[in-house]
Amino acid sequence: MTRVFAYCRVSTAEQTTDNQIQEIAASGFQVDSRRIIAETVSGSVAAIERKGFLTLLNKLESGDVLVVTKLDRLGRNAMDVRATVERLSSVGVRVHCLALGGSDLTSPSGKMIMTVISAMAEFERDLLIERTQSGLARAKSQGKSLGRPRSLGATQINLVEQRLAEGETIAGLAREFGTSRQSIMRIRQSIQ
User: Fold this and answer.
1) How far apart are CA 96 and CA 41, in angstroms?
2) Residue 113 — pLDDT band, cuts 50, 70, 90?
3) Which of 58, 87, 131, 135 is deepest in the core (most CB within 10 A)?
């Protein structure tokens, strides 16, 4: 007999998974309350790093069905969702997503949906990279300085260079100038 599990997730303690549980029940899936995993964790945390999801993985067996209301309940982005669905499929667990018409994401049509979603995510990521690079190039051509501001000014850098040449320690200079040891080491490397 097929066991049905539900995974419900919200991002903050002010939210509740009650709506997700009701939506799953209203869609016709009969889920025993012992098989509902509900947790509060940010969507930015990968599924495999979530305590509740790991508990779920330990309960699932081949032939089981996992139901989620939306894909974003499973993962932080399309690539994470795809990896999660593939992991579940590899152990014989079917994954149904209500927002996609209740389709089984491990079936041939579900795999096609996941492929399209992954392709769109990759396309969006490539566009973002392209826009970022274009913006950086424009800023650079306008003479704007890029990156994090320096922690020390030119006068301070010259003083650090002199004091390094006199043999003062990196840690001592970092404390005195209120900066990191790494910043002092970069100055040392630039004069060597």
Assistant:
1) 21
2) confident
3) 87
pLDDT at 191: 83
Question: Quick one: CA torsion of 183, 184, 188, 189, rounded to 10 degrees?
Answer: -20
**Residue range 128-153: mean pLDDT, rounded:** 89
90 is catalytic: no
Q: Which residue is associated with the tokens 């927002």?
A: 99
β partners of residue 103 = 97
Q: Is residue 132 part of a domain?
A: no
Structure tokens at 86: 């593939």
pLDDT in tens, 61-74: 999 999 999 988 98
The catalytically annotated residue of 11, 27, 134, 180 is 11
- DSSP symbol at 150: P
Residue 28: domain span: 4-117
pTM attached to this predicted model? 0.65
Give me the residue label for tokens 């869609």. Answer: 27
Q: What are the structure tokens assigned to 34, written together?
A: 């012992």
End-to-end CA distance of the chain: give it in Å, rounded.
Answer: 72
